[in-house]
Each structure stands twice: as structure tokens, then as C-alpha cells.
Design brief:
2 copies of one chain form a homodimer. By secondary structure, chain A is an alpha/beta fold. The first copy, chain A, is 41% helix and 21% strand. Chain A contains 16 helices and 18 strands. In chain A, strands 2-3-4-5-6-7-8-9 form an 8-stranded parallel β-barrel, surrounded by 9 helices. A 3-stranded antiparallel β-sheet of chain A has the order 13-14-15. A 3-stranded antiparallel β-sheet of chain A has the order 16-17-18. In chain A, helix 8 links the parallel strand 8 and strand 9. Chains A and B meet through helix 4, helix 7, helix 8, helix 9 and helix 11 of A and helix 4, helix 7, helix 8, helix 9 and helix 11 of B.
Chain lengths: 515, 515
């Protein structure tokens, strides 16, 4: 009988902990809905106790997203577990994921707890979770640096207290495939009871995908992964790599079944890249721009003769084929909304109106808008549509090698018009200074990334910035046929977000954690 | 006794086959010199028969770079082998790398040769190479899809003909660590003679690093790698990942010794990213921006208490620490040239003058220039300094949300002044149109990437574009405090390169290949 491998996506929890990523509830919901379309088995939606914002986002996802199990992360404190349950209980199927550090290093330096205290906390936390739901996961954080006998002891306690999934996190990305596989094998042999074994591999040495697969070969039947390999530091195992490795090499994973609709991989990857502001490198496996391109003469010759000479994955399989939908400035609201539906994009409430207005503005300047453009427009609106934020009314810039670059901006807030003119080292600098002056919000531009949504000179420029103020870092996104305008929009969207997350970020700082 | 693992870098051969990468001889030499400083054992400098440009670049590297073995790739044709030897013979130590496809798929669809013909070509090609040098490598291309008995037969023939290294390429990235390791083990057991076994792993499933390490564990003592994991499609095993995995986990590779100076890894990675125009994703292992950053509260708390709680690699070890050198507009030529020397950057001939002029221009507009800025300036000059190319004399642009974006450019060529004014969808578009008009060179902007060299609003914008014309794709690079100016410079540098490589690219298309 085929053996189902549970795909546990933690893009919204571990992925969102990457520096500068700060998704709001609407963006998280959009990603969660795409993950459901992709067909993942479990969505780890957040860490509800970390902040009010995290709590609300998890709650919204639990209520709205159908299909996958919705999971919340929790420390073993009883009040944390109860709070986590509050967030996920509305889901069709809800999971609580309890974790605590078990390595001597972490227990001593971070928790300041004895092994006995850690065992007791594990028992009580898991038991409390089990009172709420019969789907309880437990993780001994920094497992790969925990003495084996103590790890087995903690895991056995967790199973006895009611844990149904045991997750083995390689928190610092220290594992090597064969020793990580051996660790999973050891857990399966030594820990008695009825549970699913899970992997959670970080990529510090570039081995997260391989370690996850070694875990599956050793009997793990859940993998914790992130879209595009996001996550702390070098990130987690990439969902698309783990899934495609198993699909491409079924001979190496006899009987293992993965329920993901791979033709949604490319779109999921693009959506996550846009909303997080984390571009995908050209040579990224499976979802990178080059994954299906061939440069050298002999390779091109080979592929023309027979695709399989140099390709082991069909681009169609992961949804990496050309645009199908083309809209122009004469397309109406109905066509726009239909196109979004065809793309599987569900836009909630006012965002649809705002996205349609932006579509019309952009269609006036660019002849054709493809599905990739539409995805980008929706992504921009999800990021900038803030009830009481600043709006860009107009921008005028001039620059070049001759005079000093200068910009004039007019922004609106609650009917009020604010105008400022500033000079700068470049036109983007000038525009950002003018926005600072007009809004009165200070901030430092720490990262800046532009990519064109589709090829060609008339492509839309998609700008993602990261702005830092008082130790809080947020991202903003802007779209335009002009890069300076897109940058100004991105900066203004970051300013709006800065105002919104500043409190939340400070609250979060005190409690957040991760396996 | 410690066992030396040969680090064989193929950034300049397989890496350079990535779409849009087109390094000239000066850039290749710059990278080769940095690879020598990094301490790799072998540099595969190119595929001499592919084009005159490739031949000249390999020859220049063989003559100038000290330390590593300099290797050239060759098909088994006797004339190809001889030509390859011509290119590498000036090296202190020279290697010829002979390859031929051995999988049924490749033999039938691509080579249109019988297995007997492939065996004969292997024997004669390797023997010819051995007449030139006693350091000869052989690769059966697409080894992982070659029937085992035929692969062993070919390898045995290669050893008998004089091959000293047998490289097993996973050309399509099809391997899984345990089966690739088993393949290496099988080769070592079945092929008789005195040779070093080598891995060449592609990353289509995200497993290139793991497969290379599995090969080492199985007895391979050479790994073929690229800086930043460059290469065809999803690229090759990343040099920095393979090296740091072995250094971080010596317990898993008993006795294996790697001679790389890891503190040069970060700089090597930056240089390759700049010169190739392939940005590094934030969450890239070892060399990504996030590799040593920590977002969540508990992680930050842990790292403050003790670095090892969440870090297994010290940032100093890979050279990822802050800037040391700061120059300003009052810094003279001597200080500039000294700073480059300190950075280990050797700039040849006129490029130093040109780089110094650009330094002064930029220093007038940016208060402080750090070592990262200096690296970027040199990278720009290496890319744009073309004897008879166009030069940007001046640029004036205006744009925003109100009027139509417009640009006026003046370019110089051989004393002649060419001016044009154009409108566009955005200011960059307008600037590119004006350059097209002024230079008379058509081209399509297919990719566009801006990053800031260092943080802050006053950072230098580093723009890399890819421009396509008549099926030839080239990259260009520009640096400025203003993004539109940097883009115009990048576009113009691509135009210059387009003129230069068009012929070469067509010549190359006919013969190029790769294991």
C-alpha cells in the first residue's frame, strides 16, 4: 500500500522569521490559500503567542482555508498552549505543535532549565495540547546537538503524553545526510508507540533537502519545508526540491506518495517571492529562471533532439510555462476579475477595487499585461492597501549626470495633502527624502531590489525595499513602468507598514522562538 | 596520513555556460587570480576549442596564474586535444580534461555514435592528451544514466590509455546521495588502476552539494564545484557549501583535508556575483546575506548569550565581516591603488586608470566608499572598458506620475559625439531608447537587476542588465548613486559587449559542450 508523506509547510512560521519579512494577515491568508491549492497537507500558520498580529493571522487562516490541517506553534507553557488552541480551533482539522530545546547548549544558555525541568515541561505541555486536539506534534529543538539518550527520553515522554507526530529539527543545519538519516532510524527504533516521524532541516551547509530525503528514506513520513527554502539564516528545506526529488526518483522512495499538485509550484514560488520581497536566484533548483534553460550549443542541440537529454523535469510539471492570459487597457473589471479567478487568485474586499484601479493605470502605460503582471499587481495591493495609510498622489523627478537629482512628491492621508521637494544623491534617494519630509516618518533604506515582472523594456518594474527605523525592519513593494516611481511607491508602502508593525514588532521581540 | 581532497573549480567553464554570462578575458583572469588566492587546487579555465575568445582566455590564465593546476576541457578529437594543450601548456602545471557522452540517450540522440565508436574515441583522445601531459582527466558525460557495465568499460579504457583522474558527472542532476555514493563506490571497486575519482554534480533537485559529499564519503578525492553554485540550469555543487560542510563536520570525513583559505570565500562569492551579474539569494547557504543574521527574539537572545546556540560557522571563517577600508573624495590615486592591493585585487593596465577616474566621480557624490564599493567599481570597469566602445558623456532624465518620461543622452565613440532624446514608459526605458538611437545598436532588455552595494540610501546602485539581439544574450553592468544613470551605464556596457561577442557567440554555438 502506498505510504503518504505529509508535506508540512512552515513558510508562514519559520519562513516569515527571515530578516525583513513581515507579512500582514491579508498576505498570509493569500499565501495559505495558495498552499491549499498546491495541496500541502499541513500549514504551520504562525506562532500565536508571539504577538496579537500573529494570533489574528493564524485565526483568520484557520477560519478561511479549507483542505490542509492548520497548525500553530507553541512553547510548552500551559497558557501558551491554550492561546495556540484559541487561534487554530476554528480549522476543519487543527494541530498544536509544542516545542522545547533539549541540547545542553540551549538548555544552559537559553532556557536556563535542568533536563528534569525540560522533561516535566514536555509532559505537561503535550498533555495540555492533547486535551484540545488529538493532532499534537512535538519538537525537541536543536535535536542534532542533543545527546541521543536524553533526546529519546524526551521523545518517549512526549509520546506517552499524547504526541502523534515527533519532529526532529536540525535547528542549526548541522546534519549530513547519512548521519541525519541514522538519527531518524534510531528514533524510530528506540521510541515506542504510535507516531509519525518528521524532519525539519535547516540549510546552513546546503544540505537541507538531502537531509530531509535521507530522513524519508529512514522512515520519516512528514517533512517540514518552506517555499523557496525560506527560513532563519540559510533557510529550511525547499518544498519544491523535496517534492520534485521524490516525484523524479520514485525508485529511491518505494511506495512513498506525495499529494502535492506540482503544476502549482511555479506560481506558489512567485507569489511567496513577491510577498516576502525575497527574490529567487536565477540558478535555484526547480523554480529558478534558469531551471529549464540551456546555454551551450551541445546542450541546446541535445534538448532540441530529445527533451530528456538534459532535462529530468518537464517545465509543465511545475507550471513553469509561458503566460496564457493577456489583458490590455480596454479590458474591463469583469475580464480582470475573471482573469484573477482563472489564476486561482482570490482577492478579498476593497483590495479587488484597488487592484483594478492600479491595473487600469498600468494598462494605460504598458500595452499588454500578462498573468505574471496580474499576480504582481495583486501582490502590490495586498502590501500597500492600508486603511489609514499614506497614498501617493503624484511624483515628479529629474536627474542625470548634469544637475543634482531632485524630487517633488504629494501624498494624501485622510483627505489631507502633504507636499515636499528634496534633492538627493540619486533620484530614488531624492524621492525617499521627499517622502520622509512629507510624511514626517524617519527610516533608513537598508535593502533595495528591482526586478522586471516579465521580459522586455516595457516590463513592469517590481521594486521591493527594506526600511529600518528604531531596530524594526519592514519591507515595502511598488510596481510601475518607471523604476523611480516604483521605488517611491515601495518606500511609501514600507512607511505605512512601519507605522503599523512598530508596536507589534516590539511586543514580538520579547517572546518569539522557533524550532 | 591526511588525505587531500582536490577542489576543482569550474566557475570559468561550466559556470560561464549559464544563460547571459559572458566573461571577457580580463574578467576571467580576475576571477582566476581570486580562485588562486582562495587556494583551489585546479581551475578549469575554459573549453579552448569552443571559440577564439575561450582559447585566448585559457591561454592568458595559464600564463599568469600561479598555484593551481590550470585545466582545459576537450572533446576526444585529436585536433581538439592538441588545441586544448596549446591553451594550457604555459601553466606551471597543466591538465587536459577529455569528455564524451556515454548514456544511450546521449549517444543515440546527440553523438550518433555506437558504443564501440565511443570506446575508440575515449582511447585515442586520452592517449593523445597523455602525450602532452601526465595530468589527464576523463569524464563519461551523463554517467548517472549510463548502464553500469558500459560505464566501467569506458572508464577502464580511459585509465589504460593514461587518464589519472576519472570524473563521474551527474550531468542532469538526477542523483540522490545514497545512490550517487554507491555509484562512486562501484567505480572505485570495479575500475582497476591508479587514478583519483572525482564528482561533478548538478543541482536540478537541490542535491548537488549532498551528492558531492556522498561521493567523498565513498572515496572520491576530487570534487568539481562552482562559486555560488553557478552552472547550466540549476547549476553545479557550490564550492563554498562543499568546503564548509567538510570543515564543519570533520567527524564525518575522517582524514579528509581541504586546502581552501575559507576566509576568502565571501569575497570570491561577491566578485563572481558582480562579474557574472548573477545575484546571490538572501538565504543562500554560507555566502547569502542572511547566513549570519538572526531574526526571532529567542534566536537573537541565544546568539547574544553564546554564538554557538544558533551558529555553526563563524562569520570570520568565511570572511563575512564588516568593511575595513574607507576612502573618500580626498583619497588620492596612491591610497586607491593601495586599497585595491590590500583587497587582493590586481587590476591590469588601463583598467586601473579608468577605475580611479570612476572612483573620483563617485566619491564626489557619496561620502565614504568601502571595500565593497571598491570591488564594485573595479567590476564595473572590467566589464565596460572596451577599447573602441561607446562612452557615456552625459545623461539628463525627467519623469514621475505626471508627464511622459524622457531622456537625453550624449555618447562618445572615437572622438565623435552622438546625441539623442527619447521618451519611454519609464525613465530607464527612455534612457535605453535614447542609447539605441544614439548608438544605432538594436537590442532587447531581457533582464534587469539592481542591488545596493552597501546599505543605506546613499549606497551605490549596482545595476546588471541582460540584453538580447539576434539570439545573442550579453550582460552589462553600471554603477552610480542614481539608478537610472547606473541603468544607462549598464545598458551601454551591454551594447559594447554585444558588438564584441556577437561573432564569437555565433562561432561558439556550433561546437560548445559540457559534461
Amino acid at each position: 500500500m502506498a505510504d503518504r508523506l505529509t508535506i508540512f509547510d512552515t513558510t508562514l512560521r519559520d519562513g516569515e522569521q527571515s530578516p525583513g519579512i513581515s507579512l500582514d494577515a491579508g498576505e498570509k491568508l493569500e499565501i495559505a490559500e495558495q498552499l491549499a491549492r498546491l495541496g500541502v497537507d499541513v500549514i504551520e500558520a504562525g506562532f500565536p503567542v508571539a504577538s496579537e498580529g500573529d494570533f489574528e493571522a493564524v485565526k483568520a487562516i484557520a477560519a478561511a482555508v479549507h483542505g490542509p490541517v492548520i497548525c500553530g506553534l507553541s512553547r510548552p507553557h500551559l497558557s501558551d498552549v491554550d492561546r495556540c488552541w484559541e487561534a487554530v480551533r476554528a480549522a476543519e482539522r487543527a494541530r498544536i505543535h509544542v516545542f522545547i530545546s533539549t541540547s545542553p547548549n540551549h538548555m544552559e544558555h537559553m532556557l536556563k532549565m535542568t533536563p528534569e525541568q525540560v522533561l516535566a515541561a514536555t509532559r505537561s505541555g503535550v498533555a495540555r495540547a492533547r486535551e484540545h486536539t488529538d493532532d499534537v506534534e512535538f519538537s525537541p529543538q536543536d535535536a542534532t546537538r542533543t545527546p541521543l539518550d536524553f533526546m529519546i527520553e524526551v521523545l518517549q515522554v512526549a509520546v506517552e503524553a499524547g504526541a502523534t507526530t515527533l519532529n526532529i529539527p536540525d535547528t542549526v543545519g548541522y546534519g549530513i545526510p547519512w548521519d541525519f538519516g541514522a538519527l531518524i532510524q534510531y528514533v524510530r527504533r528506540e521510541v515506542k508507540g504510535d507516531y509519525v516521524t518528521s524532519t525539519h532541516c535547516h540549510n546552513d551547509l546546503g544540505l537541507a533537502t538531502a537531509n530531509s530525503l535521507a530522513g524519508v528514506q529512514a522512515g520519516a513520513r512528514q517533512v517540514e519545508v518552506c517555499v523557496n527554502g525560506l527560513g532563519e539564516r540559510a533557510g529550511n528545506a525547499a518544498l519544491e526540491e523535496v517534492v520534485m526529488a521524490i516525484r523524479t526518483r520514485p525508485d529511491q522512495f518505494p511506495g512513498v506518495e506525495v499529494g502535492v499538485r506540482t503544476e502549482e509550484l511555479a506560481r506558489t514560488s512567485r507569489m511567496v517571492a513577491r510577498l516576502t520581497g525575497y527574490p529567487i536566484q536565477y540558478n535555484k533548483a526547480v523554480v529558478g529562471r534558469n531551471a529549464f534553460s540551456h546555454e551551450s550549443g551541445i546542450h541546446q542541440h541535445g534538448v532540441l533532439a530529445d527533451r530528456s537529454t538534459y532535462e529530468i523535469i518537464d517545465a509543465d510539471t511545475v507550471g513553469s510555462t509561458g503566460s496564457q492570459i493577456v489583458l490590455g487597457k480596454h479590458s474591463g473589471r469583469h475580464a480582470f476579475s475573471n482573469a484573477l479567478k482563472e489564476l486561482g487568485i482570490t482577492v478579498h474586499g476593497d483590495t479587488l477595487d484597488a487592484a483594478f484601479r492600479r491595473f487600469k493605470e498600468l494598462a494605460d502605460r504598458k500595452v499588454q499585461l500578462t498573468d505574471a503582471d496580474l499576480e504582481a499587481i495583486v501582490a502590490e495591493e495586498l502590501g500597500t492597501h492600508v486603511g489609514d495609510g499614506f497614498e501617493l498622489e503624484s511624483l515628479e523627478v529629474r536627474g542625470g549626470t548634469v544637475g543634482t537629482p531632485a524630487a517633488t512628491v504629494v501624498v494624501l492621508r485622510g483627505g489631507e495633502k502633504l507636499e515636499a521637494t528634496e534633492e538627493g544623491d540619486g533620484m530614488i534617494d531624492a524621492a525617499c527624502r521627499a517622502i520622509k519630509e512629507a510624511t514626517g516618518v524617519e527610516g533608513r533604506l537598508v535593502e533595495f531590489n528591482v526586478s522586471s515582472v516579465t521580459g522586455g523594456v516595457d516590463a513592469l518594474g517590481d521594486v521591493v525595499v527594506q526600511v529600518e527605523a528604531d531596530g524594526v525592519r519592514v519591507s515595502g513593494r511598488g510596481l510601475s513602468t518607471d523604476v523611480v516611481e516604483a521605488s517611491a511607491r515601495a518606500y511609501l508602502s514600507a512607511v505605512n507598514r512601519l507605522l503599523r508593525v512598530r508596536d507589534r514588532a516590539e511586543e514580538r521581540r520579547a517572546v518569539e522562538a522557533t524550532p
